[in-house]
Amino acid sequence: MRMYTDPKGEAYEQVIDLAIRSSECFVLGEKLLTDDRVAGHYSKLLAALEPYLVKTIKIQRNHMDDVIQMKKTYRSHAFYTAGTYYFYRCCDESGYILKQMASRMADWVYPNLPEDLCFLKEGGGDYLYSVVHEQMYGLDVTDTEAIELMDRIPGLFLQLDQLESHRDLDHLLDDAIKHQTDRLILSGHKLTDLPDRIRELTELRELEIFAQDLYRLPEALFELYKLENLKIMTSDLESIPASIARLNNLRVLCIHCGSSDRPALGWRAKPKEEISLNRIPPEIGELEQLEQLTIAYTSIRELPPELKKLKHLRILDLDMCMIDLKPDFLHGMKQLAYLNVNGRIYSQQPLGGNYEF
């Protein structure tokens, strides 16, 4: 069962204890195939775990058939590329080291630590898995066990999408608030309004909303001051409120109009000329941390010069809009690595980093 986000702090420790009791071994990987050991925390961990090492398997970069065979043999998310894989015995002592060296599943990533901590059951298959770069975490439990664990471990937020519970928006928000998730996807709830209680998700850093009938954004959304990544997909949007300026930790803002989360036979997006979103508020220039701004399928015809204030902006993607010419002030934004204005793409630098489109 997938997790919305990785457990942290005390929840992480309880999940590690649970996995140690329920698994035969755990696996850590070195995916970069380098002989240069990283000093400090990384090497300290490998030394501490040495007494519990069961075996090591190394797969060269040009032997991808071996990766496929490993995945078939162990049926684990741990094996998806070449690298060196360390198998360790599950016991209280090795579990204690895992709890001492990290405070959340997302910590298991190079260069601070080996990557993608996974616990394997006897006979194969993951009991607990992580693929950190893809933000994928999961636990092999039944529906009944999942509900019991969520009741018992605050901070363990499992996706109950296959049950009636999380198909109900109120129940989903109840659990999201209880576990103070930092990541949430709202999709398939036929939203027409975003509930004001969204403001109670005070730890939220990533929010994705896919709701074709969501027309307005409430003020409560702009009280999520820790939000770093906001993605909204809808068929139409009235406006981007000036209150967007309050999200001063925002790094990525993506808005896609003309989208449907449940397209019926014959459904078509309205022409972009009829989309209500026709301007970008100048207040967006107050988002000092913004690195990516993507706004697609709108009737926007011009850009506010306040965009010049976004010194960290690397991606400006304004596809399928009504802008005819590249505004002159964009020429001075030398930090832009990718610029798309109504299908005309200008690229100045290699991107690097993790970005969405």
Walk me through this protein's architecture:
The chain is 19% helix and 20% strand. The chain folds into two domains: 135 residues, no CATH class; 166 residues, Leucine-rich repeat, LRR (right-handed beta-alpha superhelix) (Alpha-Beta Horseshoe), CATH 3.80.10. Strand 4 and strand 5 form a beta hairpin. It is globular. The longest helix is centred in the N-terminal third of the chain and has 13 residues. It has 357 residues and is α/β, with parallel strands linked by helices. It has an eight-stranded mixed sheet, with no helix packed on it. The protein has a six-stranded antiparallel sheet with strand order 2-3-1-4-5-6, with helices on both faces. It contains seven helices and 14 strands. Helix 2 packs antiparallel against helix 4. It comes from Paenibacillus aestuarii. InterPro entries: LRR_dom_sf, LRR_domain-containing. This is Leucine-rich repeat domain-containing protein.
Secondary-structure blueprint:
Blueprint: H1 10-22, E1 25-30, H2 41-49, E2 53-59, H3 64-74, E3 83-89, H4 92-101, E4 115-120, E5 126-131, E6 136-139, H5 143-152, H6 164-167, H7 169-178, E7 183-187, E8 206-210, E9 229-233, E10 252-256, E11 292-296, E12 315-318, E13 338-341, E14 344-347
Parallel strand pairs: 7-8, 8-9, 9-10, 10-11, 11-12, 12-13
Antiparallel strand pairs: 1-3, 1-4, 2-3, 4-5, 5-6, 13-14
